[in-house]
Design brief:
Layout (H helix, E strand, L loop, with lengths): L10 H9 L3 H23 L3 H18 L9 H23 L11 H24 L2 H12 L4 H8 L3 H35 L1
GO molecular function: DNA binding; sigma factor activity
Family: Belongs to the sigma-70 factor family. ECF subfamily.
InterPro entries: RNA_pol_sigma-70-like, RNA_pol_sigma-70_dom, RNA_pol_sigma70_r2, RNA_pol_sigma70_r4_t2, RNA_pol_sigma_r2, RNA_pol_sigma_r3/r4-like, WH-like_DNA-bd_sf
Length: 198
Amino acid sequence: MYPHLPDDISIEWLVSEARKGNQQAADRLFDTFYRRIRHFFLKDLHVSIETAEELVQDTFEKAWRKLPTLHDCVRFEAWLYAIARNVALDHIRKLKRRKVPTPLDPEFDLADGAPQVESVVLAEMHIREMWDAMPARQRECLYWYYMENLTMEEVAVRLQLGADTVKAYISKARVKLREGMYSSEKEQVDVKSKRCRA
């Protein structure tokens, strides 16, 4: 049995202990990040509190299973948010599979519905591919700057980087995303033109 944990323990120590099987450390990590991850789901997915709590549970279950694969304890928070984003994407995919439009739906257009859904799915897959291909540091800087609305200085402190380095990472990531989006748009135009000629 582990003794009661004091309040002023670092996240890195808690992660290290949780990996060794310290349940109190794992519980403390859950308590520390529970509200933040729930807020992430409520804000980004606009789901009910009940659904958000289910997604939080799913996120932590995946995190505990994958915890031995996390070699850098300092990156736990960013790593946990990456898992939460994957859980969010899985949830969105499940909703899309369940929602089958019918001709009784006044907004459902049999002729135009399929291409629109196809475009959305292709765009989502392309964005995910670009995100996964991005170097970890660029991805982290981009996430904290845009998703969590931190300033570049705050991102620098959180990731223990220089402010100029953070600025450079974000700038490079923006360029790569723009280039990726432009190529995606060109591909979509090519696909549409091919369909018109067919």
